[in-house]
Amino acid sequence: MLRRPATTLSITAEDIASYEDRRAREAMLRERQVLLEAQQAQQQQRVLLQQQQQQHAQAQPQQRQLQQLSSPQLQQRHARHLEAGMAAEDPEDGEEEEDDETHSERQQELLRRQQEMMRAQRGRGAAAGLQTTPTPGDGGRGGRSREERIGVGRRGR
């Protein structure tokens, strides 16, 4: 029975650098996706809040009209109508609005922090020059660029 020689794989520094670059791009895409999702959620909450404000603004004139009516029968009829409308709504709306407001404030704070982090990373990236791979746990490589890691332009070393 014939045996073939063992297959050997050679991984170059360029392969490692391209892998790291791809992982960095994927991480940046994930961050962007999270940021977009947060922005969309914030936009949806704004729309819901505006709709709720419009509903409350429409309900206030009805209450004023009720106060201005002089006939007790009309007041009773109007009161029954408003109570029926309020009964259809969730009785804990006030608490949910407070929760929505605190939730939207948290979302805005989270979004603001993410934007600050992105700005800070952009600022550091411009200062670092040729560094293309952010490596927080860089394994002792320091702040070397991709070209420095793979040895481009080094002859005789």
UniProtKB/TrEMBL annotation:
Domain of life: Eukaryota
UniProtKB keywords: Ubl conjugation pathway
Composition bias type Low complexity, residue spans: 48-76, 117-129
Feature: compositional bias, Basic and acidic residues: 103-116
GO cellular component: anaphase-promoting complex
Biased composition (Acidic residues): 89-102
GO BP, one annotated term: anaphase-promoting complex-dependent catabolic process
Region (Disordered): 48-157
Protein known as: Anaphase-promoting complex subunit CDC26
UniProt source species: Colletotrichum spinosum
